[in-house]
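JOB MANIFEST
job_type = single_chain_structure
chain_count = 1
residues = 330
[input]
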Amino acid sequence: MMTQKEIAAMLNISPATVCLALADSPKIKQQTRDAVRKLAESMNYRPNLAGRMLQNHKSYSVGIIFPSISHSFFGELQEEIHRKIMDRNYLAFFISALDVLEKEKAIDSMIERNVDGVIAFNSNYSLLKPLIDNHIPLILYGGFKTPDKREGLKHVQLDRFEAGYRITSHLLKNGRRKVACVGIGDETEDRFLGYKSALMQNGLVIDRNLFAKARPGMEESYNSTLELLTRERPDAVLAHNDTTAIGVIRAVIDSGLKVPEDIAVVGFDNINVSRFLPISLTTMGHNKLQTAECLVEGLFDMIDGDGKATPDITMLQYELIVRESCGTKQ
């Protein structure tokens, strides 16, 4: 394998000049940088990662802490994040952490690996503080709403309140009046608050008999929907996410009812399978590529800078995607 010393000898320049040229340093003339890169490419030169790590005091790795690899939405978003990180010639360490203990272990692992930065999904500040204390750049996706300006955190959020309001309003506009909500974990969660706001603005009473708590998932939502249908007969269901909606649809059909004729069903996240279901799913989707770009670019702004964040929150919007399951075309 060709080394920087051999490239330097062939071009009659110093190894230090080769190193700076390969890093595209403005200290080196453009003509010299071009000559070094051209020779390196022609000889299939590959930089020594260990040497780069020692020289630049970097691990050239990024950690991603996420809730569950089994969740289709997170899996699809992780793919986009991974591509963006690999484009920067960094390694990505993905760790699934479902509870507090697993998250603490994941954070300890990131610190031990000396990663150059971390993207954390749906995590609270107290758990993440060890990363900040160890001066590891951090960007958050989801979780709590307001960045702690004293700590200089960056956030990327989706406007779930507006999305919950909009998709519920869509159902109401098209004649549905008893809109159930399946998959409630936290009644202060934004999409649920948007749902309630749309009902109230249309003069409808909040009926708690139409709420069905369930962990987001097909089996859980299937069972919760069956139980819901024994006490109430909604004419529409807002599911926590698309995976939840799939369980809802199955429960409605198994109860001898039709989607969307008897009960309209809508979801969140626009996972890939949602448009291929026998009854294609109306959902609130967003651009996962855009989300990945915001997270990765925001993190590398800190990694390539002084490691500190200017406190901010990037709010991304959902798009209403109308398909068969809601019974309308628009």
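[summary]
The chain has a mean pLDDT of 88.
The two ends are 60 Å apart (CA to CA).
exit_status = 0
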